[in-house]
Amino acid sequence: MASVAAAFLLALLCVPALAQEIFQSARAAVPVDHTNIAVIINNADPLSVKVGEYYVRARHIPSANIVRVSFPANSPDMPVDQFQRVKANVDAATPRRIQAYALTWTTPYRVGCMSITSAFAFGFDPSYCASGCAPTKLSAYFDSARSIAVPAVRPAMMLAGRSFAEVRALIDRGVRSDGTFPRGTAYLLLTTDKARDSRVPTYLLAKGVTAGLVDVEILNRDVLLHRDDVMFYFTGLASVAGLDTLRFLPGAIADHLTSFGGMLTDSIQMSILTWLEAGATGSYGTVVEPCNFPQKFANPAIAIERYVHGDTLIEAYWKSVAWPGQGVFVGEPLAAPFMPRR
Fold it and tell me: Which end of the chain is more exposed for a tag (fewer CB within 10 A), N or C?
């Protein structure tokens, strides 16, 4: 991963101001919940069918919100022309009230140069990609207000895993987290891999946004061991050790800033699925080389602030990434540990 972060730290701080201008034309919307999330099922993938039907039952999602499509599931990369056909079918079948998508498969996770979650959110658009170490288009969803949505932008998250048992456990953790207000800790690590520590300047900001609901520990180490209260875990490194010694609380978010964590099934580095297998409820990683732009990964301060103030996992995570075109979101989208039960 090329080291280009230093030249863009100023841009990281300036991005929210740009997002503010975009949101002057945004429309008010209700928060994402089971009534306005669409579940996309690939009928050609038996695991997708099983996961989708289980999720609909677990979250009491209306049958009108189920969209069924069919495409090959044996490759990590969906050809762009095939995606355009699938997306057109999804758009035609999606009720107008829908605010977000739950994608119920593990492959494909990429559409050409984009992640599949960003392709569903924005449509396939090369301006959200980059060839080499270059910026990409700003997400109109980034750092938005609590009850604001952008017309034609529906954030997407994959319900993915290596088996049905793993995805079922993920879904159950998300459901179990709702309204629990867990007293956990956000662990933010400064590692020996300085190239992948490009978002460290945001760590101190995270201390001031927790509203006293979680503790924040900024640790100068490569490995976190033997903690039983992990609510957030943000780090660098191509591979993260010691996950089997940790207990992630239901609804926990965890990711590592590295090049290929979003290559779910064939990464030469640690797949973000490993976080979910260890007990996290949401993770994020890039599907093509992003360089170490912090804007292409979650801003921990924003993710923590949005989550502890009541956003669902999909809202909080999506709002924390300025340039998400090359990154894939995986997890249980409706997990809401800090939202009062309704």
Answer: C
